[in-house]
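Supplementary Text 2. Reproducibility record for the structural model of the 367-residue chain.

All settings were left at their defaults, and a single model was retained for analysis rather than an ensemble. We include the record here because the model underlies the residue-level annotations in Supplementary Table 4.
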Amino acid sequence: MATQVIETEVQDPLMEYLEDPFLHHLFTQVRKAGAIKGISVDLTHLCNLRCEGCCFFTDDLDQNAAPKDDAEFEALIAQEKARGTNYITAVGGEPTLMLDRLRKLAQNFWMIVVTNGMIKIPYEGFENITISVSLWGDRETDKKLRGGGKLDVFSKALKNYKDDRRVFWYYTTTAGNAHEIERVVEQCVENGNFIIFNFYGDKAGLGGVYDDDRGFADVRHEIDRMIARYPDRILMTSYMNQVFTTGQMYDETWGYDVCPCISENRLENAARFQNGKPYNLHFRAYNPDAKSTRTCCTSEHPDCSTCYQTWSQIGWIMLNMERHLGSKQEFTNWLTTMYMFYLTARAIDFEAGVQVLPEIHRRVNSL
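Retained model, structure tokens:
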């Protein structure tokens, strides 16, 4: 989920840290791109899969139908452009079921589209978007969780997006299946794509290897190994990995009271807005009707105990720059998180940006 870059004047101790030419380069690229003002939009309430534990269905978000009239959708685009929105996370449902509306978003905003990969997004008209292809494990695990035990979604998506530079795999790892990670990442890299990790919250109550109460220590270790092995392909740092898998950042614990991706126009969030923790002043999560919004990016009634939403946790780091100014290493961890987000949003030149990924990974420390 999008958040806003810090726009204050550079002051000590930043001046000292930015004497490092590499950090100065990253900081300059982010500042040059300017503030990302983002929202999420459910393009449709329909999906061609029904994945186990998908928050869209477990929270009954599919009960809100998309408008049949294109004019209503175009009114949302006009409204958000007037509000200053420049970045869209297109979700659903399955957004590729609405390619015409997806194309309209691509014509007006920076955009990332989250898809199950079953329908190939064409290149023409979508040249500058980022495509986040969902993946929940190796073929056996992914088939069980997303393919109803029969459909090999992973193989279909690999074929659809072979050597597509727009694509990264949004690999939702399960707590008890750390042993799958290496081979899955190998296949994604061999397919010519990039990888970001997410973490499975067992909203479906499957238990066993899917139970997030087991913790993600083994998963964290394997992800760090993959970062070391493929530093030019992993769009997530070891510091991000540490924060996401532990739910801890300094003395704060992940949850609703620190989550930045809550709809700014919902009165239900008033107490959260006033608790002193930073939040995204611009963010809204639109339902498929293109009018109403829900409480946060994933739910109308959020249960943060099973939420490991990578994009929201990225925002948590990004909006806490001041907490990361205690040392050059802490600032490096914060700045590289910012840079990774801007890179995936393609707010900075993607092909130039990925060239510095190995140096980013070399410098980051999970503390």
